[in-house]
Amino acid sequence: xTSADFRVESNHPISGRLLPGSDSxxxxxxxxxxxxxxxxxxxxxxxxxxxxxxHVPTGEVVFRxxxxxxxEFADEF
Length: 77
What we know:
Layout: E1 6-9, E2 14-15, E3 26-29, H1 32-41, E4 43-44, E5 51-55, E6 60-65
Antiparallel strand pairs: 1-3, 1-5, 2-4, 5-6
């Protein structure tokens, strides 16, 4: 596997305590488990938007953190 096999992405800036400082809309990982864990622990700005993990070579979405439709369930950062 190459260093960019999995992409954590969203249509909105992604932030998390374990991610690098900048609020990017995508981050790249070589390990699927790490990419999924980072996506699961991250939030978007504005809160509650969808975050996906995509296998870059195939374009397959391997994990999806659905957008929150109810504000009380949106992750707080």
